[in-house]
């Protein structure tokens, strides 16, 4: 079912704050509107087999889809229990966070979706928000409370373990391990290209105050120890206006993050290189396109596209889609 394409203006040209940004985008680059009729867009993912992008409209409980071949937006799935972030695993299967099921789930090549993991130590997760797959096949995801404290983003419920952690799940043996315990409301996450660093954003306060009033709006970085643990957390970058809800890392280690008014780009040393303005509040983004050099931006009512001269570094950016 095709949806109203919606209308929204394209963005203004890139704002260069450090000439290193011009190694990543061409001068004059701007975000271009692709379509959508969402209320709040999140969780974009490029599907290589289809040359398409799917993303979540959390409040309407739908997954929307943009096809490059036709340039149209359609409803990919509806009644999906409030999906949020997603990625591809090493076999090209879509791994998705579900607020409603309080779970991380996986879609098999035949289209069947099932819960992979929904709790730890006998209690349920809060509402898994965003997810990455490491090159060893383990699944790392954030577990803030947004889907159980906001009725329009899931089902109201209790924080059964009384906090908000980042977890590591090993689908090979079912092991669930908390790996980051010191972030107030963990939201986006990504590894550096060599997976020696884990980035996790903190967007505490965003549920009650909105993105522009959040108490915390920074990305923390951790050392990944023995490929299994995250230690030595420190602030990597403060993002303003708005929050770093979701972000991705390119092959050079630059961090491309959502914010209230743009996609902002930070060098591996934490300095901001500049920003690509987006006319709507940005929820999340992903690399995609046949050569993975396009940044697809999920921003409030729909999807935007930003051409770059770099590419994403995660297994999802390298995977061959075989859902
Ligand atoms: Mg998020």
Mean pLDDT: 95
Rg result: 18 Å
Described by strand count, sense and barrel closure, the largest sheet is:
5 strands, antiparallel
Form type: globular
CATH superfamily: TolB, C-terminal domain
Structural class: mainly beta
Which ligands are bound? magnesium ion
Multimer state:
single chain
Number of strands: 27
Total separate domains: 1
CATH topology: Neuraminidase
Annotated CATH architecture = 6 Propeller
Main traits of this protein?
323 residues; mainly beta; Neuraminidase; 5-stranded antiparallel beta sheet; 4-stranded antiparallel beta sheet; 3 helices; 27 strands; 4% helix; 43% strand; binds magnesium ion
Topology:
Elements: E1 15-16, E2 32-35, E3 41-47, E4 52-57, E5 62-67, E6 72-78, E7 83-88, E8 94-98, E9 103-107, E10 113-117, E11 119-120, E12 123-124, E13 131-133, E14 139-142, H1 146-149, E15 166-170, E16 175-180, E17 186-191, E18 197-202, H2 206-209, E19 218-225, E20 229-238, E21 247-249, E22 255-257, E23 262-266, E24 272-277, E25 284-288, E26 294-299, E27 302-307, H3 315-318
Antiparallel strand pairs: 1-24, 2-27, 3-4, 4-5, 5-6, 7-8, 8-9, 9-10, 11-12, 13-14, 14-15, 15-16, 17-18, 18-19, 19-20, 21-22, 22-23, 23-24, 25-26, 26-27
The chain binds magnesium ion.
Task: Give an account of the 3D structure.
- By secondary structure, the chain is mostly beta strands.
- It has a single domain (15-321), classed as 6 Propeller (Neuraminidase).
- Helices cover 4% and strands 43% of the residues.
- It contains 3 helices and 27 strands.
- The protein has helices spanning 146-149, 206-209, 315-318, and strands at residues 15-16, 32-35, 41-47, 52-57, 62-67, 72-78, 83-88, 94-98, 103-107, 113-117, 119-120, 123-124, 131-133, 139-142, 166-170, 175-180, 186-191, 197-202, 218-225, 229-238, 247-249, 255-257, 262-266, 272-277, 284-288, 294-299, 302-307.
- The strands form 7 sheets. Strands 1-24-23-22-21 form a 5-stranded antiparallel β-sheet, with no helix packed on it. Strands 2-27-26-25 form a 4-stranded antiparallel β-sheet, with no helix packed on it.
- Strand 8 (94-98) and strand 9 form a beta hairpin.
- The longest helix has 4 residues, at 146-149.
- The two termini are 20 Å apart.
- The model has no long low-confidence stretch (mean pLDDT 95).
- The structure holds magnesium ion.
- Magnesium ion binds next to strand 7 and strand 17.
């Amino acid at each position: 079912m095709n949806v109203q394409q919606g209308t929204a203006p394209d963005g203004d040209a890139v704002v260069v704050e450090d000439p290193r940004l011009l190694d990543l985008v061409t001068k004059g680059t701007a975000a271009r509107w692709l379509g959508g009729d969402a209320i709040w867009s999140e969780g974009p993912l490029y599907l290589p087999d289809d040359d398409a992008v799917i993303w979540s409209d959390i409040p309407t409980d739908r997954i929307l889809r943009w096809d490059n071949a036709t340039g149209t937006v359609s409803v990919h799935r509806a009644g999906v229990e409030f999906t949020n972030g997603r990625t591809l695993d090493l076999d090209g299967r879509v791994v998705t966070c579900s607020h409603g099921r309080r779970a991380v789930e996986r879609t098999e090549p035949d289209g069947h979706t099932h819960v992979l993991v929904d709790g730890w130590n006998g209690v349920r997760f809060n509402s898994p928000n965003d997810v990455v797959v490491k090159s060893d096949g383990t699944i790392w995801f954030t577990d803030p409370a947004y889907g159980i404290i906001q009725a329009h983003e899931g089902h109201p419920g209790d924080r059964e373990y009384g906090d908000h952690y980042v977890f590591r799940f090993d689908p090979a043996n079912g092991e669930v391990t908390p790996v980051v315990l010191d972030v107030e409301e963990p939201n986006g996450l990504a590894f550096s290209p060599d997976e020696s660093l884990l980035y996790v954003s903190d967007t505490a306060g965003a549920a009650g105050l909105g993105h522009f009033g959040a108490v915390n709006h920074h990305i923390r970085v951790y050392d990944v120890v023995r490929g299994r643990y995250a230690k030595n957390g420190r602030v990597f970058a403060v993002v303003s206006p708005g929050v770093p809800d979701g972000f991705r890392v390119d092959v050079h280690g630059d961090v491309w993050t959502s914010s209230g008014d743009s996609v902002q780009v930070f060098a591996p040393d934490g300095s901001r290189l500049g920003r690509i303005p987006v006319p709507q509040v940005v929820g999340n983004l992903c690399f995609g396109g046949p050569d993975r050099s396009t940044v697809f931006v999920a921003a409030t009512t729909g999807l935007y596209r930003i051409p770059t001269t770099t590419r994403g570094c995660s297994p999802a950016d390298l995977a061959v889609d075989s859902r």
